[in-house]
Design goal:
The complex is a heterodimer of chains A (462) and B (556).
Chain A lengths: L6 E4 L3 E3 L2 E5 L8 E7 L2 E12 L2 E6 L12 E8 L1 E4 L7 E3 L15 E4 L10 E2 L10 H4 L12 E3 L5 H11 L8 E10 L1 H13 L6 E7 L10 H15 L3 E7 L1 H14 L13 H9 L4 E2 L5 E9 L8 H9 L2 E5 L1 H5 L6 E8 L2 H4 L9 H25 L6 H18 L7 H12 L12 H14 L1
Parallel strand pairs in A: 9-14, 12-17, 12-18, 13-14, 13-15, 15-17
Antiparallel strand pairs in A: 1-7, 2-3, 3-6, 4-5, 4-7, 5-6, 8-10, 11-16, 18-19
Helix pairs in contact in A: 2-3, 10-11, 11-12
Chain B lengths: L2 E7 L2 E5 L7 E5 L4 E9 L2 E6 L11 E8 L1 E4 L7 E2 L6 H8 L18 E5 L6 E2 L4 E7 L2 E6 L6 E6 L2 E3 L6 E3 L4 E2 L3 E4 L6 E5 L10 H6 L7 E5 L6 H11 L4 E7 L3 H10 L4 E2 L4 E2 L4 E6 L5 H20 L3 E7 L1 H14 L13 H9 L3 E5 L7 E9 L9 H9 L2 E2 L4 H5 L12 E2 L2 H11 L4 H25 L6 H18 L13 H23 L10 H12 L4
Parallel strand pairs in B: 8-23, 19-26, 19-27, 20-23, 20-24, 24-26
Antiparallel strand pairs in B: 1-2, 1-6, 2-5, 3-4, 3-6, 4-5, 7-17, 9-11, 9-14, 10-13, 11-12, 13-15, 15-16, 18-25, 21-22, 25-26, 27-28
The chains are: A alpha/beta (462), B alpha+beta (556).
Chain lengths: 462, 556
């Protein structure tokens, strides 16, 4: 972009909600950073979201209480929004604008980077294949997480989505013990949720390798659009320039989408489903797609966004569009939570699309795929039997369905439910123990060879 | 007076004073981003820009080009990985690095590469559009170098030899230069001599499609499914294993890592029919969800134009669109930014007509020119309905114009039953049309086996409904047999493992044999019951194991 001096406008034509409207602007560019100055109140920051000769729209990232559009000075900086990146950010905490909130001076950093990022050229991406052992059986066995993946947690109000993310930060074992870092973006979550998350990260000793961007529920809503972009820009530098394996946790994407809707409504845009803007898919993709591995570069970005499904509805536009972009999803279940299953992960609607590349010979176990398919099939049958039993009673079920029902109960209580970290070997042992309670004719997903081998091993161990 | 930008909103730019033609390309801004004029009002033009507009400023110049978006068609397309506007992504990477930045210019075809051209026509021959001038061998395909549509005359010069795609291979007496490659505007269907219905199926190698819901070659299918139901796996399996000479795969607004999968796998996978890597018959068009939406909108037209080019040479081409919904959303996004009056769910009112025009570019045809040949483009369009709700506008519009629907079901996907095709709501309008072919090439009683199995599954669904109301005790022995055999059919015949070396592809005879064997097992069971055996005494486990072994290609 050609350099240009600041342009100052005296007074805006209109202000409403988080938007400021300017008239007769010249040389204004899309995405340009704007500073609004008014005597008596602190500077406000914003970004040009519609640039026009006749009318320009600025989206303010701070609250607008006390802003008098006709008296304010609006400075168009001629630069797109950038943020400081660098290794020295590790161990630091910032607000949703990138200003330090830990009492330390602002970092000098290694570079300034535009926060919107740019799409990774698909031909330069490397295929994610490295298995991350999270220590959680429902994930490691059934929905394996691999490096470079974006795997969201679909939580519900009151369900422990953030807790599971904290546990993954705490328990995850990187392959080959390579250097890793955590970048956490709090987006509109409460002070209590933030504190609980940070306490767990601190307890795990990962805090010195963590960068925090904290926009909490009490902070301006529009800033929520900013915080995840800062976090991902910092993460990209750590991953692709510093060679670290970065885990990015963003919570809560539901608040992010609500801020997006707020802006769209303020702009009087044509709303899409449930009032969310029609471009929400593209907007969310511009965040989620900032995960991956680049050929020839040592680092990686793995993303775990957390979202709250309004009314536990997986078809709500927020989880729906997310699921279409991310490489799977971990879905939490209120029913399991109520029954005390921890973590309450419902494996049936959960999915990891990159699982096949991360499992099998040399990664986990050669039989991983068929073994997890069998667990899925048997559990799915048990769940079906459970709903049938609710009508006809357990005694009215055929023998095969009764077995499946017992399997499903045991699966939830002894496999999904866990108190401490499990290694992948422990997870496999727990899974096989369950499968051995079924007659071999029920194990239709296992190949003859696997079946023979496991039966032999089972016999030997008795 | 130079045209200047007067407004930038997302990927939409307004410029004035500019008098262009609709769909004409323009260079936008000092970085010369590529854009397309989509509206003209007074002296104000509205353009959609194919590259990121961040940083684009009011007052920057706009220059129109006089041409519309074209595909460059010629040798060198096979194995190519292009973005939505036809730039090879490798070349873009050379220009802008690991991340895509605006402003990179690159032709689709490599201008340096030399091709051996063998002339099949001679000086003095009169030629018409579509006539073969000669051939060039590229990978598994022999390109016919064709007289471009709209060009005719008498050959003044032509020589076999080695050429690049831009150097002349000859000329007509009126001075028209002949080259190995030519350009065609992507939004205009390439002309053909004749379109006709096809009695040949597009053989997918997937049992549930070939047997239950076939697509005719030159037909089209819509594949709607919520997220996680396996649309992409189906599209990829078809790209790998279907019977087609050329596969054009459009990753339209989908995931970057998924395309990496395709790019890693296709060069390694061998097409069993030619013994060559799958990549040798593939053209990939990749415009991921975070790449500019205007280029996403263009990507499917780029794809179908390349498909039509190969069709015109006499090839059977499969065009995979993953996903049609992302294209429709791009259309919606551009319409909303122009403040057009929205139709259903915010989509523009012309959604259905555009979709119809696009799917109608599928077809089995006799291309223009000599020698007489036949070619086909079959379109398989994945659809991503919001919330998995098929009543939404994109699914409904697609169903009106495609001949098959493969409805994907979340409940099946949750059980890891893939392809998760719901046999109740899926349909095929081609089944009767292609039945004779399958009878000849698959098995003698193809239609009967198909009908009997569908009836069996239908019966099972009814019995399940009864059982869930009054309990399984109320069922008769024969009902139990139906349920057990139907379960076996679902498990062994319909489920297909895309990762299994033997099961990933199932030829029509293999599909028939398996389906026939399952039906025989049912008849055996019925006979046993009729002779007085109680259902509880029947042991179906060995049958099931034998079928599974047959499917997996192992001896039980």
């Amino acid at each position: 972009m050609s350099p240009r001096l600041d342009v100052t406008h005296h007074g805006a034509a209109a202000a409403g909600g988080p938007l400021l409207f300017l008239e007769r602007t010249r040389a204004v560019s899309l995405g340009e950073w704007v500073v609004v100055r008014q005597t008596g109140i602190a500077d406000r920051r914003g970004q040009v979201i519609d640039a026009g000769e006749h009318a320009t729209v600025v989206q303010l990232l701070d609250d607008t209480v006390g802003l008098a559009p006709d008296r304010a000075e609006i400075i168009l900086t001629g630069e797109v929004a950038t943020t400081v990146v660098g290794r020295e950010l590790l161990g630091r905490a910032f607000d949703g604008h990138g200003a330090p909130v830990d009492g330390l001076p602002a970092p000098i950093g290694e570079a300034l980077r535009p926060i919107d990022g740019a799409p990774i050229n698909p031909v330069r991406r490397a295929r994610p294949r490295d298995f991350i052992e999270t220590g959680i059986s429902a994930i490691d066995a059934m929905n394996t997480l691999v490096r470079g993946q974006k795997l969201p947690i679909f939580s519900g109000p009151g369900l422990p989505g953030l807790e599971i993310a904290a546990r993954i930060v705490e328990w995850a074992r990187a392959p080959r013990h390579e250097p890793f870092a955590v970048v956490f973006a709090a987006v509109g979550i409460t002070a209590r949720e933030t504190r609980d998350f940070l306490d767990r990260v601190r307890a795990s000793g990962a805090l010195p390798r963590t960068v925090l961007y904290l926009n909490q529920a009490s902070h301006p809503a529009v800033e929520r659009l900013h915080a995840p972009r800062l976090a991902l820009t910092a993460a990209e530098h750590l991953a692709y320039e510093c060679g670290l394996h970065v885990l990015v946790v963003i919570a809560d994407m539901t608040h992010y989408c609500e801020a997006l809707r707020e802006i769209a409504t303020a702009r009087e845009e044509i709303p899409g489903r449930r009032g969310y803007p029609g471009y929400m898919y593209t907007d969310l993709a511009s965040l989620y797609e900032r995960a991956g591995i680049i050929q020839g570069k040592p680092g990686s970005i793995t993303q775990i966004p957390i979202l709250t499904m309004p009314d536990d509805d997986v078809t709500h536009p927020i989880p729906d569009l997310t699921g279409y972009i991310t490489e799977g999803q971990i879905v939490l279940s209120r029913e399991l939570h109520r029954r005390g299953v921890t973590p309450p992960i419902d494996v049936l609607p959960s999915l990891s699309r990159l699982m096949s590349g991360g499992i099998g010979e040399g990664r986990t176990r050669p039989e991983h795929r068929e073994w997890s398919d069998q667990l899925y099939a048997s559990y799915a049958r048990g769940r079906e039997a459970r709903s049938m039993a609710a009508i006809v009673g357990e005694s009215g079920l055929p023998a095969g369905d009764r077995r499946a029902l017992a399997f499903a109960e045991a699966f939830e209580q002894t496999f999904i439910n866990q108190s401490g970290r499990r290694t992948i070997d422990e997870t496999f042992a727990a899974g096989w123990t369950l499968l051995h309670t079924l007659p071999s004719d029920d194990l239709t997903r296992l190949s003859a060879a696997t079946l023979a081998a496991t039966l032999a091993a089972h016999e030997a161990s008795r | 007076m130079t045209a200047r930008i007067i407004r930038v909103a997302g990927s939409l730019v307004e410029a004035a004073p500019l008098h262009g033609a609709l769909y004409e390309l323009a260079f936008v801004g000092t970085r010369r981003l590529l854009g397309e004029i989509i509206k003209q009002r007074g002296d104000v033009c509205t353009l959609q820009v194919y590259e990121s507009t961040t940083g684009l400023a009011v007052g920057e110049p706009v220059e129109h080009t006089g041409v519309s978006l074209t595909a460059q068609l010629g040798p060198g397309l096979l194995g190519a990985v292009l973005d939505g506007i036809g730039r090879p992504l490798e070349r873009v990477a050379e220009a802008t690095g690991d991340f895509i930045a605006p402003g990179a210019r690159a032709d689709t075809l490599d201008a340096e590469q030399q091709w051996a051209f063998t002339a099949t026509r001679a000086v003095g021959d009169p030629v018409e559009p579509g006539d073969e001038l000669g051939t060039v061998v590229e990978r598994a395909i022999t390109h016919r170098v064709l007289v471009p549509p709209g060009v005719h005359g008498v050959i003044a010069a032509i020589d076999s030899g080695t050429y690049t795609v831009t150097t002349p291979i000859g000329a007509l007496t009126d001075g028209t230069t002949l080259r190995l490659a030519h350009r065609w505007p992507v939004r205009i269907p390439r002309p053909v001599a004749e379109r006709f219905a096809s009695s040949r199926p597009f053989v997918t190698g997937q049992r549930v499609f070939d047997l239950f819901f076939p697509v005719a070659e030159g037909g089209s299918a819509a594949v709607p499914g919520g997220f996680g139901t396996g649309k992409t796996i189906i599209e990829q399996s078809l790209a790998k294993f279907s019977e087609a000479d050329v596969v054009v795969y459009v990753g339209c607004g989908e995931r970057g890592n998924e395309m990496t999968d395709v790019l890693t796998e296709f060069p390694l996978l061998v097409d069993p029919r030619t013994g060559r890597p799958v990549m040798d018959r593939a053209v990939l068009i990749v415009n991921t969800s975070n790449m500019p939406v205007a280029a996403r909108e263009a990507s499917i037209y780029m794809g179908v134009t390349i498909a039509e080019y190969f069709r015109d040479q006499g090839n059977r081409v499969a065009l995979m669109i993953d996903s049609t919904s992302r294209w429709a959303e791009a259309l919606r996004e551009m319409a909303a930014r122009q403040q057009e009056m929205p139709g259903e769910e915010g989509y523009p009112t012309y959604l259905a007509s555009r979709l119809g025009q696009f799917f109608e570019r599928a077809g089995r045809v006799r291309p223009l020119g000599a020698p007489t040949r036949e070619g086909a483009v079959t379109i398989i369009g994945a659809i991503s309905p919001p919330g998995g709700d098929f009543s939404e506008p994109v699914t409904q519009a697609a169903l009106r114009v495609t001949g098959s629907m493969w409805a994907l079901d979340a409940a099946l996907a949750h059980q890891r039953h893939y392809p998760a095709v719901d046999w109740e709501s899926s349909f095929s309008l081609y089944a009767d049309q292609v039945a004779p072919w399958f009878t000849t090439h698959g098995g003698e009683h193809w239609s009967a086996v198909r009908a009997d199995l569908l009836a069996l599954l239908q019966k099972e669904r009814e019995l399940r409904d009864i059982a869930s109301l009054v309990g399984p005790d109320a069922l008769e022995d024969h009902d139990h047999l139906v349920m057990d055999i139907a379960a076996m059919v679902r498990e062994v015949v319909l489920r297909q493992n895309a990762y299994h070396p033997h099961d990933a592809i199932s030829s029509p005879p293999q599909t028939y044999a398996l389906a026939h064997a399952a039906l025989e097992a049912f008849r055996d069971g019925e006979r046993a019951l009729a002779s007085g055996t109680a259902f509880a005494e029947l042991d179906l486990a060995p049958t099931r194991r034998a079928l599974a072994a047959q499917r997996d290609g192992v001896t039980p």
